[in-house]
Request: fold
Amino acid sequence: MTSISHQEQQKIWDKEHLNPHLLLPMHAQEASSGVIQFWEWLRDKQESLHGIEMGCGKGRNSIWLAQQGITMTGFDFSPVAIAEAKQRSHLAGIDKNITLLVHDAITTWPFKNESFDIAIDCFASTDIESATGRHFARDEFRRLLKPDGYLMVYTLSTEDRFHQSLLEKFSTEEKNAFLHPTTGKFEKVFDREELLDFYCDWNLIEERRIDKVATFFDKEYLCRHFWMIFQPKKQVSVQ
Ligand SMILES: C[S@@+](CC[C@H](N)C(=O)[O-])C[C@H]1O[C@@H](n2cnc3c(N)ncnc32)[C@H](O)[C@@H]1O
Reply:
């Protein structure tokens, strides 16, 4: 098998959220280091922010950002993940500062144009199994962000050792993508050129590589994740 349907991908994610075994940090309560870096970069720039996280999973990032004072909205297509995120936000006592909902990123997002100041894609578009779906999600980010808003993209790279090994053996028809050998889950990894091409209608405001050691199945691998902040390019109106 070298491809997967959207329904299959969603089922695999719901199962992973129910019985975490593949991506353990996603089930932790601590925010991702990429999101913490974004907040540190952002916090003196603007006040009273509204933020959105696509594919928020069990809410570790959205809940943490809400605790920092941002009014957050997080959504995920996994009902299991959102139920857990709601419970966690309730326990954290920040219900009023956060909206969590089940929604699929590849169908129109239920929010008004230009209603958010910041947006987060923390390893989420990497899990959308079609290029069309990823393009759709990117364009929804653009529709919902205010013109001076920021999108933070934290994502996998072709230089991550674990993902390199999977790309060698389990690649799909799409470039730099593989189906995970145990779950069949689709993952897309990126090289820098692909990312810049994908975000060609956005200005790259800040870029870092985040080097870290990640453990997959009891083995340590070096990772070189991409961390990028984009802002929508101004649309030129033709008279
Ligand atoms: C790698 S996890 C990252 C979760 C979260 N951003 C974090 O850092 O903890 C990817 C998340 O994207 C969600 N996801 C994948 N495809 C999606 C889609 N089409 N719509 C909404 N959520 C999706 C998955 O359910 C999963 O929770």
Observations:
- The chain has one domain: 6-18+35-232.
- The chain is about 30% helix and 30% strand.
- The helical segments are 6-18, 33-42, 60-67, 79-91, 131-144, 161-170, 192-198.
